[in-house]
Specification:
By secondary structure, the protein is mostly beta strands. The protein has one domain. The protein is built from one helix and eight strands; from the N terminus they run αββββββββ. A hairpin with a 2-residue loop joins strand 6 and strand 7.
């Protein structure tokens, strides 16, 4: 074999080997996640009218990485969560929503809300959102928003919704 043929054979074998490794190799990417988990805890549906439903969902994030523990005190844990109230029509289309998000700490004997925020928006051109606010008190985060339906100049409907999210001493959000 000539030196030229050996080089061509070497390149061909190398390309085949690389192709084989790419096709059969494990291409998974290592991901290091924080010690958190998110789960939907509770969903309730309330019929407001024949064409308007109120869907309430509570979501919880457990922040295990920020747990603190010492020999002298009980373990203190933190949790973040949100409670969303969506107004939907009978077709299942979301018209507007208001959401309270809160951060909580708890230790088995007490709990407290450390922050609260509100988000609210309309997905329908006939609904406008106003008067958004949030507050925290004790173990509860609260958000309020007003949705106004303006179909025409003769008909309007206003709904002011207050959403509260509380944390029990054991970390259960409700």
């Amino acid at each position: 074999m000539t030196q030229c043929n050996v080089k061509k054979l070497f390149y061909a074998v190398t390309i085949l080997a690389i192709t084989f490794m790419l096709v059969t190799g494990n291409h998974s990417k290592t991901v290091y996640a924080a010690d958190t988990s998110v789960s939907s805890q509770d969903v309730t549906i309330e019929k407001i009218t024949d064409d308007l439903y109120c869907i309430t969902t509570i979501e919880t994030t457990i922040n295990g990485s920020s747990d603190k523990s010492t020999a002298a005190t009980r373990s203190s844990k933190t949790k973040s969560g949100s409670k969303t109230v969506k107004y939907q029509n009978s077709n299942g289309t979301t018209l507007w929503y208001v959401k309270v998000s809160g951060d909580f700490s708890y230790n088995g004997s007490s709990s407290r809300c450390t922050s609260a925020s509100v988000s609210a928006a309309s997905y329908d051109k006939n609904w406008t959102i106003s008067n958004k606010s949030s507050s925290k008190s004790g173990k509860t985060a609260t958000a309020t928003a007003t949705g106004t339906l303006n179909k025409n100049s003769l008909f309007s409907q206003t709904i002011t919704k207050t959403v509260s999210l509380s944390c029990s001493k054991n970390g259960k959000l409700s």
